[in-house]
Structures are given as structure tokens and as C-alpha cells.
Amino acid sequence: MDFSQSPQHRMVRPLLEVLNSSNILQAISDNPANFRFPKGASVVVAVEDWRPHAFVDVVEDGGPGRPSFTLKGPMMQLLNTLSTSLNFTYTLVRPPDGAWGGRQANGSWSGMVGLVARKDVDIALGPFVVTESRASVVDFSLPLTMDHLRVMSLSGAPEMDPWAFLLPLRPMVWVATIATLLLAWVATVVMLKLWRTPGHTSGWNPFRLLFEHLRVLLQQNSELGNCRGWERLVFASWLLVTNVLMWSYSGNLMSLLAVRYVPHPIQTLADLITHPSLVAILEANTAYTQLLREVQDGTFHDLAALEEASRMIHIKAYDFSSALQRLLRGGNHAFIIENSSIEKLMAEDLSRTGHCDFYKSTESFLPSSMGLIAQKDTPLLPAINQRIRMLTESGLYEYWVRSSTPNSSVCAQLPSRITVKEPIGFFNIWGLFMVLASGLVLSTVVFYLEVLTVRCSGVITSSSTTTTTRKNTRRDEDSPTSSSRGVPSNTLHRSQPLSLSRPKEVLYCLKSPPVTK
Fold it and tell me: Where among 90, 117, 145 does a domain terminate?
């Protein structure tokens, strides 16, 4: 095991030997808040890198008698506070497997939990998630902090929403606009039906009035002709509403065309599970990995099944920084780690690159309280808890955590939309062309339906005309007056040959109606 000794380390008795004294035990029991070791004690402390709580830096040139690593961060400040307050020196060690600790198949414990459970060390800093299985082999201090898990992923490239032309107005405004259009149209039609005066003909059918109101909404000219005063009043009210609405729409649209949408698809744990290819990365041998091994159903059971599908890997805590550059930046992996760790990794990446390339999910899960661990039934724990209570109630530990993570709030809440200044391309507004194409297809369908309707009506009209002509011909032949006039009936009909072509009335329907002045 790597080790490091405190600068004040001197030859003092080990902690277990000191705690065998009845006087020491009585002093701790009587006044744990003010207790101090009269002659000091030597405490062996297990620690591992977990930023932003513990910063473990390996010393490359560490030789015999020299520390092979250094500890910084909030946990180091906490340890120095306890050391000064309780009057003990310490020796730092790291677990051989670099893990916090989980229960193995044979019932043993790995990581720092295993070191404390086997009494190889006196306490371990962590902080550790409090679980029932861990509490059966070690003692937990009062909680130092609360944390929860989130998913951390790579942000997508900025892109424009192709349906941005619908965004200037909220859905309820669009609904209200359509409802107002129909209300104005219905009011006009009903009043035209109820208020008829002799000698006055409007010449406007209901559908023509509907399209007239729609022309106003689309900022087109109006063909409103001879009409009454109340008609003009209704039309003017609709004109005022649409003008204000369209001015607001056009102003907001100009602003939204400069907005780019940044995809953040993984917002929940279910999004990660259902993703077809994204690989989840978790820390090895922790309380969370033990939970995934033991859960039988639900979302976490589905998450555990990703390992069988080769979509889950486990790494050590101090490898997350390098994995961020090697794996996460490629866009095919996602971290499932504590929120504080995500903020630290994002802050370090911001300091390195100058921009926020990653985001965290909006959903958080598995909230946990965390604290130190000590050997089972150790009498020193009440004295440690008194110091921890003062640090947490004063907010000092959280202040240490925030101070160790500069820029932690910059990338914490990334906007999903950003503003850019660049030319608009076709793929940025293809939604508009989709609306145009849909309109053209719909108009083509309607056109052919109209042509088909006219042709069918023309055939029926021609058939009826032919039948009527034949009846008239037979009647003229049978009439005695036709011969008396000296004009043969067959001559009359040969001079007017029958035509099965489209009648003039049908052709006239294809033309625009004449304008009546």
C-alpha cells in the first residue's frame, strides 16, 4: 500500500493501544466535544482520490522514507482539523485496488471498507455512502454531505430547430388565433343571414367570407366591397387583432432565426437505458455497483442488464478525468456518477478548453448521505462526531468543497438554446419547405378532385341533353304540323347535329365568374 505521513508525525503509540486505557475511555465518554489525547496518538487513515472531496496526487520520485502521494482538498482540511482538535498524528494509506469497497461473492469486503473491517486502518475518509450492509462491518460518522447520482454526457452540436417558425407564438396563442378567426367569420355569416334588407345583395357566400378573413391574417389585400357598417366594424376588429399579432410574430421570428438548438437527449436514466448504443461508465466496487448486483426488478435492474449487453464498464475513481477525454468526448459513453463529481469534471474541462462541452441530466436518483467510517464499535467515534457536527452546521465543509471547485456553477445549468450570428442554410429552415410542399400536394389533390367532379357532371348533363333531344325529335316526327309546313323533320335535325361534347354551362364553370359592378 502507498502511504504518506503527517508532517507532525512522531513516535507515539498507535490508536488501538491508546484506547485500551480506561482513563482515555472515561474522558471520551464524559466530554467528547472537548476531548484531546493527552500524549497524542498515531492514527492510520485510508484515503483515495475522489474529486472534489479528496485530491490524491502521486509523487513520482517518492523513495524509501518519503511519501509516495499527497492529499489535498476538503478531506485533507477535515483530517487536519480532527488531528489538531484531538491531538493525534496520522499516516495515510491507499487501498491496493483503489476502490471504496463492496462486498464480494465470498463475503469479504474490498477497498477501503475492507481495510477498516479487517482493522488494517483505524478510519477511512471517503466520504462513504451509508448502507445497511456496510454498517454491519464498520461504523459511520455523522453525515458530512448529501449527494445523488446523475448522468453526464457529451453535448450535441448546435443546430437550428427547423420548426422555429412556429415558436414565436405559444400553442395557446395559435389556438386562440384560429378560434378568433372562426368566431369573426361565423358572426359575419350569421348576421348576414339575420339582417337582410330589400334591394341589398351582399354577393359574398360563406366560404368567400372565410377566405377573406384568412387573407387578412396572411397580410394580403382585402376585396371587401359593398357592405354595411356593422360588417366593416367586425372586419376592422379582426384586422386590428391580426396586425398586432403578425407584428409580434415577425419580430420574435427574426430573433429566433438566430437561435441554435443544442441537443441534450439523455435527461433521465431511462433515456440512457433505452439508447441503442450508449455505453454507461460507473465507478468500480461502490455501494451503487453492489445495489445493481442485488436488485431484482425495476429501472436499476434494467440498468444492470446493460453489463450483459456489453454496454457497461467500471473504472476507478481516479481514472474519470482521463476517461472524460478518451471515452466521453467521443460521444459513445456516459458517466453515472455523483453530482459533485460531475460539477468538478465539467469545471476542470472548462478551465482546460474554455467552453462547456458536457451536460448533466435533469433527473437525479439514489440520494445518499455520506460520512467517514471507523472500526466497528470504536470509542473514538463520539469525539469525531462532535467535530463533524460543528463543521456541517456552520457550513464549513460545503464551503471547502465549493472552494476546491472553481467555475463549478458555469456549466452546471447549460441552456439548450444558444444565439449565433451566421447565414441561414437550407437545412436550418427545411420545415418551411415541408409546409410549402404539403400545401402544393394538397392543392394538387383538390385540383384533380375538382376536375373529376366537373367531368362527371358534364357527362351527366350531356346524357340528359341527348335524351331530351331524342324525345323532341320523335314528337316532331309524329306531329302532323311538321309536314304541313313543308319542312321535313329529318332535315331540321340534320342541320343541328347532336354533340356529346361538354356543354357550355360546364365550360363556364371552369372560368372565373364575371365581376358585377
Answer: 145
